[in-house]
Amino acid sequence: MKLSARLFCTVTFLILININLSAQDLQKYFPIADSIVASSVLNRTGYKWLKELCEIGPRNIGSQNLERAIEWAKQKIDSLGFKLTLQPVMVDHWKRGNFETAVISQSTKFSGKKLNISAIGGSVGTPENGITAEVLEVKNFEELRNRKNEANGKIIFFSRPLDPAELNTFAAYGNAVDQRTRGALVAAEYGGVASIIRSVTTKYDTVPHVGAMRNYVDSLPKVPAAVLGYADADFLSNALKEEPSLKLTIKLDCEILPDVQSYNIIADLTGTEKSDEYVIVSGHFDSWDKGDGAHDDGGGCMQALEVLDLLKRLDLKPKRTIRCILYINEEHGLDGGYAYASLSDSLKLINYAAIESDRGVFTPRGFTADIDSANLSVVLNKMQSWVSILNKAKIEWIKKGGSGADISRIKNSKALIGYVPDDARYFDLHHSDNDVFEEVNPREMQLGAAAMAILAYLISEVGLE
């Protein structure tokens, strides 16, 4: 027993020494973190880049604006002196068109009332004269199945709101967005002639919040899909209670076009010792054609690019290569994410770790990490030991969780990491005309860039083993 106790004490003492040594080694990164935060917040470089990017306009896939934005990014990266690669990617091409209208066209009380409507990405258009039909309001797919005998020839109105009682707005969004992604398919299954939904948003206004739907299937009719502003969805719902037989006319001239070539934009700050190992920082470069894509995801892209610039201007030479990827076509199907993952597999690239910013550029809160179960405790504990350093940029925690849509396609990484800012306001703006540069707070955005730079540098220097 005495021997066992003595052995236990010896092992405990050695563990404590190792912890203390580790803490002592980490002390040198506190002043580096201070420098990164100060340079980011004082210079506002990424924020200035974002202003330039947003002045080009929204970057919907296949658009001339997106082509101009890619050329702008190419010139910016060249001017900063980083290695540039443009990876060709074939992407979907969908065009909104010139008009999208909704009006209550037959009603004893509400005739002529116009509603704010926008086509959902990937939708077909309506006939030239539009679609006029009665409206069947349902909350979810189960209710539609139960009322399928009422659905034939109707415009199906999915009116379930994002749950305001769910404090995690991303969880609330996830619980409501199936209406947008699958509504048109389910409506067609039961004989609906069109699908309209309530905007999936936390903001009570008349601004439609758009997004993509799933691709049509050959076994079902291709019916148009659109979204109403939240307040107008309320108006329609109340009007239907008074007059269930009113008719709505919707007109959309959107169209699905052949695929086109675009590019992932890749910039590298080459590592000094392990240059063949990549620490990725990333966002997605395309946006919806509403607003100018400032929070989703222009700001995230500029944070990722500024990580490289922050390290370079502070003369910090990372051991591993810091790779910035501005992914293309996240919004319509993750084409850029799949393309980079495929390239990585074919070239056997060592994507050591990856960080993605695609939750807006609000105040930093933490990072979530998707880590292989075999290495979970080691990698997560190591990253959590850095929180006191990352707190210089207002990071409060690192925990197990999802990463990001694009980087989630990468295989054999030590950790796939999602940057998590405060989410209270994100869905006020998401996929809408509200998502403009003026809604970005420069200090919040720059603290996020600093947080990503500190984490990328720590991973490069200390490693995750």
Ordered list of secondary-structure elements with their pairings:
Blueprint: H1 2-26, H2 29-43, H3 45-56, H4 64-80, E1 83-95, E2 100-106, E3 114-115, E4 117-119, E5 131-138, H5 141-146, E6 155-158, H6 169-176, H7 178-189, E7 194-198, E8 225-228, H8 230-242, E9 247-252, E10 255-269, E11 274-284, H9 294-313, E12 320-327, H10 335-347, E13 350-356, E14 364-370, H11 376-384, H12 387-390, E15 397-400, E16 415-421, H13 426-429, H14 442-462
Helix pairs in contact: 2-14, 3-9, 9-14
Explain what this protein looks like in three dimensions:
The chain is of the alpha/beta class and 465 residues long. It folds into 2 domains: 29-94 and 258-462, Zn peptidases (Aminopeptidase); 99-253, Glucose Oxidase, domain 1, CATH 3.50.30.30. The protein is 38% helix and 24% strand. It contains 14 helices and 16 strands. It has helices at residues 2-26, 29-43, 45-56, 64-80, 141-146, 169-176, 178-189, 230-242, 294-313, 335-347, 376-384, 387-390, 426-429, 442-462, and strands at residues 83-95, 100-106, 114-115, 117-119, 131-138, 155-158, 194-198, 225-228, 247-252, 255-269, 274-284, 320-327, 350-356, 364-370, 397-400, 415-421. The strands form 2 sheets. It has an 8-stranded mixed β-sheet with strand order 1-10-12-11-13-16-14-15, sandwiched between helices. An 8-stranded mixed β-sheet has the order 3-2-9-5-6-7-8-4, sandwiched between helices. Helix 2 (29-43) runs antiparallel to helix 14 (442-462), helix 3 crosses helix 9 and helix 9 (294-313) crosses helix 14 (442-462). The protein starts with a helix and ends with a helix.
